[in-house]
Design a protein that fits this description.
single chain, mainly alpha, Cobalamin biosynthesis protein CobD, Cobalamin_biosynth_CobD/CbiB
Length: 316
């Protein structure tokens, strides 16, 4: 580990950061990631022009990420472990996933399709204006499974590796990929560095997340199905990390996700994810519970390793 914290300390801080997130949720005002998003938007407008756009994109990435990570490192050095836990709280998004997705399920159950469309449009980039209830449930379930890795497990992984600064590094890199990593004419070259860096940082967390979804399928057949879907479907997905996460999660839930989705008025035929029934309103809560259980599994695994080390150091 790159952090100077002991593993027992990391276990306690992980639990503290997750607990703060569940109790407090996202900061209502002055959330650091909102300010960072504004900075990223400003950098892209200023630097994404002319020639050498790949190198301009890499320079913009460094300008956006390096100063906050250095500041986080200095804060943790000066303020101690409590600052690490606070940084984890600001970086993790477990409760946010619940708060943004469960209202979609409630709107679908109550038959309020217009509200469900508005709520879904806040969390996905696909068109929702004419989406059916099944389309909306599918979009929400996919978002939960993928962002379980991006907003929760990748952050936990890099916190274990490098403490608060590691969590900050991952979340900022992931945010830039979400803003710049599109294969459009404007962003293809400029956002290439952001996309590749995020792929590298996410490689191990995504596969640990996919494995966790396999292990937490409710039946043995579900575990086998999740494993088969991961191995067979992930290579066809355009993202090297979203593919394993979403295919294993869909397989674990017994859902048929992926397939057609509308972006900018055009239908995109995406590879299939999982197998089983189409997603419905109740499956949004099932996807949320899978993400929540995976969080508890990760915390329990770290605790299972940390507690014997603590006992050995203090009572041997």
């Amino acid at each position: 580990m790159l952090t100077g914290l002991s593993l027992p300390a990391i276990a306690v801080l992980l639990a503290a950061g997750v607990l703060l997130d569940l109790l407090l949720g996202e900061a209502r005002r002055w959330h650091p990631l909102v300010g960072f998003g504004n900075l990223a938007y400003w950098l892209e407008r200023r630097l994404n022009r002319g020639r050498l756009r790949f190198w301009r994109g890499l320079s913009a990435w460094l300008l956006a990420v390096v100063p906050p990570v250095l500041a986080a490192t200095l804060l943790c050095t000066a303020g101690g472990p409590a600052v690490d836990a606070l940084l984890l709280y600001f970086c993790i998004g477990l409760r946010s996933l619940r708060d943004h997705n469960l209202p979609i399920a409630q709107a679908l159950r109550s038959g309020d399709l217009d509200a469900a469309r508005r709520l879904t449009a806040r969390i996905v980039s696909r068109d929702t204006a004419s989406a059916s209830d099944s389309d909306l449930a599918k979009a929400s379930a996919e978002s939960l499974l993928e962002n379980g890795n991006d907003a929760v497990f990748g952050t936990l992984f890099w916190f274990i590796v490098a403490g608060g600064p590691g969590a900050v590094l991952f979340r900022l890199a992931n945010t830039l990929d979400a803003m710049w990593g599109y294969r459009t004419a404007r962003l293809l070259r400029f956002g290439c560095a952001a996309a590749r860096i995020d792929d590298a940082l996410n490689y191990l967390p995504a596969r640990l997340t996919a494995l966790s979804y396999v292990l937490l399928a409710s039946t043995m057949e579900g575990k086998r199905r999740a494993w088969r879907c991961w191995r067979a479907q992930a290579p066809a997905w355009s993202s090297p990390n979203a593919g394993p996460v979403m295919s294993s999660g869909a397989g674990a839930l017994g859902l048929a996700l992926g397939g057609p989705a509308t972006y900018d008025g055009e239908i995109e035929q995406r590879p299939p994810l999982g197998s089983g029934q189409p997603a419905g309103a109740h499956d949004i809560a099932r996807a949320w519970r899978l993400v929540a259980r995976t969080t508890w599994l990760w915390l329990a695994c770290i605790a299972a390793i940390a507690i014997p080390l603590y006992l050995k150091d203090h009572y041997a």
